Amino acid sequence: RIFRDPRFISVTDAEQTGPGGVLLGKALDAVIVTPVESLLGNPGHKTTFGLLSQLEPDRLFIEDLHKAVPLNLDKVVSTGGFICEGSLVMCEGEIVDGVFVADVISLPPAEPREMSKTGVNFFGGSVTHVDLENLAQLENTDAMYVMLSDVHLDSDETLEKIDRMFGGYAERPPTGIIFMGSF
Fold first, then answer.
1. How far apart, in whole angstroms, are the C-alpha atoms of residue 73 and residue 17?
2. Cβ-contact 153, 159 below 8 angstroms
3. Would you give the end-to-end CA distance of the chain in angstroms?
4. Largest CB tally within 10 Å, which of 14, 71, 83, 136?
5. Residue 93: phi, psi to the nearest 5?
6. Closest CA relative to residue 13, chosen from 2, 160, 26
7. CA distances, 42 to each of 34, 37, 168 (Å)
8. What digits encode the pLDDT tens for the residues 87-119?
9. Which ranges of the chain would DSSP assign to H, the alpha helix?
């Protein structure tokens, strides 16, 4: 998805840039995104995109489908957003002794809805243009959903807090409350 953004370009595309410095509508000043698997043995300051994970106790990694590289965030400057383990992130930095030392970590830029309407149904089946139009008419842009995870419904304290939460929504109840977990 990030390569649909004109501000980013893959290493492969950067190597194929033709005369005038333009490739697929992207300028030469576009940020080259190096895959995590290509960071080791590739010196210099790089921008990469991957999953923030903790594969070992007290040690973070950035990983893609093919490689996980230890990550050092001691010098990092965050550009905002809620970043946690399991987030897909963009990191800028360089490899030092086999560890990617990041100086910037950020969430990938949001994609405008118009760009992301690719007609792909990630849940399977086929979706027609008429189906998409019908769904757009049914959309409720004022909808609010509350999601709760790992809620221990066998705890009296938890049930009291859920009751308190429901009371807080008395004036304007959400469209849906979703409980996730093992019940």
1. 33
2. yes
3. 36
4. 71
5. 165, -155
6. 26
7. 9, 10, 54
8. 989 999 999 999 999 999 988 877 776 666 665
9. 11-15, 113-116, 129-138, 156-168
Question: Under a CB-based contact definition with an 8 Å cutoff, are residues 64 and 36 in contact?
Answer: yes
- The token duo for 100 is 């990617």
Alpha-carbon gap, residue 29 to 133, rounded angstroms: 38
d(CA 180, CA 147): 7
Give the percent of the chain with pLDDT over 90: 38
Nearest alpha-carbon partner for 26 in 2, 44, 48, 46: 2
Residues 6 or more apart from 44 whose CB is under 8 A from it? 94
Query: What's the rounded Cα separation, in Å, for the pair 177 and 144?
Result: 9
For the chain, the residue count is 183
Phi-psi region of 140 (alpha: psi -120 to 50; beta: other; left: phi over 0): beta
Phi, psi of 14 (to 5 degrees): -65, -35
